[in-house]
Amino acid sequence: MYSSSLADAPAIREPLHAPVAHLVRGGVTEGIHYGSVVVLGAGGEIELQLGDVEAAFYPRSALKPVQAVAMVRAGLPLDGELLSLAAASHSGEERHLAGTRRILELAGVSEDDLRNVADLPYGPAVRDAWIREGRAPSRVAQNCSGKHAAMLYTCRLNGWSLDDYLDPKHPLQQAIAEIVEDLTGQRIARVTVDGCGAPLFSVSLHGLARAAARVTASAPGTPEARVADAMRDHAEMASGSGRDVAALMRAVPGLLAKDGFEGVEVAALPDGRAVAVKISDGANRARVPVAAAALVRAGVDPALLTEFAGEPLLGGGEPVGCVRPVRALDPVTARACA
Fold first, then answer.
1. How does pLDDT run along the chain (338 residues), one tens digit per residue?
2. DSSP code string of 271-330
3. Cα–Cα distances in Å, from 132 out to 90, 91, 123, 239, 240?
């Protein structure tokens, strides 16, 4: 445990989000993306904050590295690409399906034991291929199947029941909740159900960044370091081909990054520097450039992040603008925007 005492749960309130990115078309601000951003220094201090970083929110899949740490602490023996898959929001590529089935095999269970929802693959190209081939939604194809397979494996190793492994009162979910509080340093504000059916824990954006920093800054060989190493070494297993978080981890040495639905991203470096982003309207077009700008504010070389500046806005098939982080995030906002 990092601390013998935990901070109170974050307040449940309407978040006081602030502008974090401008949608600029032809030199005119056409729209504004609101959200919140926190940047932590290597010592855990807040170096920059925008919006409301202390309100309760749902990290969605950005919390998966913490869930994976909890399972490793509970005895999950996976490493490498299979451990990366246990923390994944995967694209449903064949390697993801094969990896999930391998975890199930190691656990001595079957696909019928999975309790996540059936779905088509998350990756657009993979999903389109499934539809063309007439393949039906499945639990293995759903983007959280690696996590669910790992949950079953953890339950089997500990002698815990399988049928109700998603119940918040189940020993597995209680163990995960304990580690969520341990790594975020605060009490959980509320528990609900994530899209895949697993319990979802509400913390603050500050707490999420703190958890990511503790995962990446942990000593070699610890459960935290094992998860971080697995995700960094096998970034495509934690996401998929062509996914921005995988590209980000490849671009920045030592970086651990994880996205989540509704515009969430967290990223941290081995020295404890970390950033966390929540885009109020859930837009990925703002999440990527805002997270990149936050990493620059954390000290990452801007030259490593040029491909994450955001996709151009098109007019008649030609670039006519961009999504530009606000000046508080990107002081050199002289970055041209048509």
1. 445 589 999 999 999 999 999 999 999 999 999 999 999 999 999 999 999 999 999 999 999 999 999 999 999 999 999 999 999 999 999 999 999 999 999 999 999 999 999 999 999 999 999 999 999 999 999 999 999 999 999 999 999 999 999 999 999 999 999 999 999 999 999 999 999 999 999 999 999 999 999 999 999 999 999 999 999 999 999 999 999 999 999 999 999 999 999 999 999 999 999 999 999 999 999 999 999 999 999 999 999 999 999 888 999 999 999 999 999 998 765 455 65
2. TS-EEEEEETT--HHHHHHHHHHHHHHTT--GGGGGGGS-PPEEETTEEEEEEEE-TTT-
3. 20, 17, 14, 23, 20
Please spell the DSSP secondary structure of 88-108, one letter per residue. Answer: ------HHHHHHHHHHHHHHT
Using an 8 Å Cβ cutoff, are 228 and 80 in contact? no
Q: What is the pTM of this model?
A: 0.95
Measured CA to CA in angstroms, residue 72 lies from 26, 52, 154, 196 at distances of 51, 32, 8, 21
Contacts for 42 with CB less than 8 Å, ≥ 6 apart: 271, 272, 273
Supply 119's token pair: 């779905």
Cα–Cα–Cα angle for 130, 135, 139, rounded to 5 degrees: 95
Among candidate residues 24, 19, 21, 22, the one with its CA nearest the CA of residue 50: 19
Task: Find the distance separating the first CA and the last CA of the chain, reported in whole Å.
Answer: 50
User: The tokens 């309407």 sit on which residue?
Assistant: 14
Return the HEC string of 107-121.
Answer: HCCCHHHCCCCCECC
